[in-house]
């Protein structure tokens, strides 16, 4: 994967890969025949229409790009280059208006294909729409999306915009930093060293095989922002760094007393409260790993457990599978995961549990 431009709306700082400026200077008509635009945004809580991002270049060979969200829950993409116009709509409905959305627009002009994907990072909700893409975007037009200088408008609710020369995967994402230690049959090993065929220890102590080791580099922003879970909270004997959507499996007397269950799952983002966890300063991009196991499970780390990669029945959804980080795996090798029935704690419940354990 090759990220070449990034805009962090919080710092309002654009970034370009070192060679991009040189290409633009010497080849102003350089094209990007294959690539992706990834945008993450909050949606307006008052259900107003939003132009999330818009760009327009005039002239004989003018070009424009706009991505909009409507009060009815639709996401509308309009791409124009010369006389060629692409207009695509994904209907989300009115649910979850204040949720975070991640929108990915990808294309491969050599294959005449384009793809619009709308996902809610905190859920498994992914909508995909394919279209025909026949005109190659100019590098300069794409860079203008991440480096707005008058021709580009970006809604204040947009969290980040990232550009890649690859067709970026969508759907379930890896969430473990390379330094997370995982218990295996041979002892502790870092997540970055594990591979297909290795045997890891699950939450109940059983040894289970790794069907696939997933790895992906992403911007360290928005739903990809890393969180440091701090020891000694929730049984951790050392700090671990994970994606904000990684979930920690927790058990104990406090869990049974407060929630009437033996185990619960706690999203890392709900523990960002100043003591049990905090957002971790990170370089511009981070690499996450995850382990696909035969069943929905959790892997042991020192004195704690982290949820493994959950894919549900994705093997039955050929469209989502082809767009995911598992697109190189044969369908016959993929398991079907059934939820283990763990309760997932909300933010105030996680804080209550953390305080009860600290008392």
Description of the molecule:
The chain has 359 residues and is mainly β. It is built from five helices and 26 strands. It has helices at residues 18-26, 139-146, 253-259, 318-323, 347-358, and strands at 3-8, 13-16, 34-42, 50-57, 63-69, 74-81, 84-91, 100-108, 113-119, 126-132, 152-154, 158-164, 181-184, 187-190, 199-201, 207-209, 212-219, 226-229, 240-243, 247-251, 263-267, 277-279, 285-292, 298-301, 304-307, 343-344. The strands form seven sheets. The protein has a seven-stranded antiparallel sheet. A five-stranded antiparallel sheet has the order 7-6-5-4-11, with helices on one face. Strands 24-25-20-21-26 form a five-stranded mixed sheet. A hairpin with a 4-residue loop joins strand 8 and strand 9. The longest helix has 12 residues, at 347-358. It is globular and about 70 Å long.
């Amino acid at each position: 994967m090759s990220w070449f431009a990034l805009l962090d709306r919080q710092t309002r700082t654009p970034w370009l890969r070192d060679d991009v400026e040189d290409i633009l200077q010497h080849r102003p008509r350089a094209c990007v025949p294959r690539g992706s635009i990834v945008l993450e945004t909050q949606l307006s809580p008052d259900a107003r229409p939003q132009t999330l991002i818009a760009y327009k270049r005039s002239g004989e060979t003018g070009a424009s790009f706009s991505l909009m969200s409507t009060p009815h829950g639709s996401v509308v993409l309009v791409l124009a280059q010369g006389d060629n116009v692409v207009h695509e709509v994904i209907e989300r409905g009115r649910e979850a208006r204040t949720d975070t959305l991640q929108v990915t627009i990808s294309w491969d002009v050599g294959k005449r294909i384009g793809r619009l994907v709308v996902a809610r990072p905190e859920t498994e909700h992914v909508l995909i729409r394919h279209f025909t893409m026949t005109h190659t975007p100019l590098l300069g037009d794409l860079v203008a999306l991440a480096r707005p200088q008058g021709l580009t408008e970006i809604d204040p609710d947009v969290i980040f915009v990232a550009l890649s020369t690859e067709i970026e995967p969508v759907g379930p994402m890896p969430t473990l930093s390379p330094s997370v230690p995982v218990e295996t049959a041979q002892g502790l090993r870092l997540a970055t060293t594990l591979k297909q065929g290795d045997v890891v220890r699950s939450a109940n102590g059983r040894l289970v095989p790794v069907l696939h080791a997933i790895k992906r580099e992403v911007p360290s922003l928005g739903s990809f922002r890393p969180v440091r879970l701090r020891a000694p909270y929730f049984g951790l004997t050392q700090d671990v760094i994970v994606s904000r959507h990684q979930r920690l499996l927790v058990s104990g007397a406090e869990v049974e007393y407060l929630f009437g269950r033996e185990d619960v799952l706690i999203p890392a983002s709900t523990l960002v409260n100043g003591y049990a966890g905090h957002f971790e300063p990170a370089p511009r991009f981070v690499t996450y790993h995850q382990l696909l196991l035969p069943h929905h499970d959790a892997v042991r780390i020192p004195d704690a457990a982290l949820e493994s990669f959950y894919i549900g029945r994705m093997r039955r959804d050929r469209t989502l599978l082809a767009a995911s980080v598992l697109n190189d795996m044969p369908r016959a090798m993929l398991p079907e995961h059934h939820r283990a029935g763990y309760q997932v704690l909300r933010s105030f419940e996680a804080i209550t549990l953390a305080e009860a354990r600290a008392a």
